[in-house]
Specification:
about 40% helix, alpha+beta, 3 strands, about 10% strand, 3-stranded antiparallel sheet
């Protein structure tokens, strides 16, 4: 592995772990910002050169964010659950942190009972098929003025 590759991996892991650790705050206080289409001020740093592909930093950040959620969900008294919502928020935060626009999409499925699901989309790419949950109807994203969530 090259020196650049190691730096990208370390940065990706740190971004992913930061994303996992900050997920409860975003879910409880700022989820609307991640559900709304991303704006330039929501994305940290310059636009990523890897926005069209899954470069080393974004790939490591995504994997580390999901792994961080799985790990932290096992720690007693930590307010993190290993659910699609927490994993999606961590992934969205990690991608935005490395300069890739991403959005959390929420959907529901009606049947004998109401089910909900969360996943991440990148507005510049076609929405990929969702594994194991293709029949969820996406909810409409909030308007930008409604996106900030409660302020207490």
């Amino acid at each position: 592995m090259t020196d650049h590759g190691r730096k990208a991996s370390v940065r990706g892991v740190l971004v992913g772990l930061w994303s996992a650790a900050s997920t409860p705050f975003w879910i409880h206080r700022r989820l609307g910002v991640l559900v709304a289409p991303p704006h330039r001020e929501d994305i940290a740093g310059p636009p990523s050169a890897e926005a069209g592909d899954r470069g080393p930093v974004s790939g490591c950040a995504e994997r580390a964010g999901r792994a961080g959620i799985r790990l932290l969900a096992r720690v007693p008294f930590v307010p993190i659950r290993n659910t699609c919502l927490y994993r999606s928020v961590a992934t969205c935060l990690a991608l935005r942190r490395v300069g890739i626009p991403a959005q959390v999409r929420l959907g529901v499925r009606r049947g004998s009972d109401l089910r909900a699901h969360a996943w991440v989309v990148r507005p510049q790419e076609p929405e990929p098929p969702r594994r194991g949950s293709p029949d969820f109807t996406p909810l409409r994203s909030p308007a930008r003025s409604d996106a900030s969530g409660p302020t207490t």
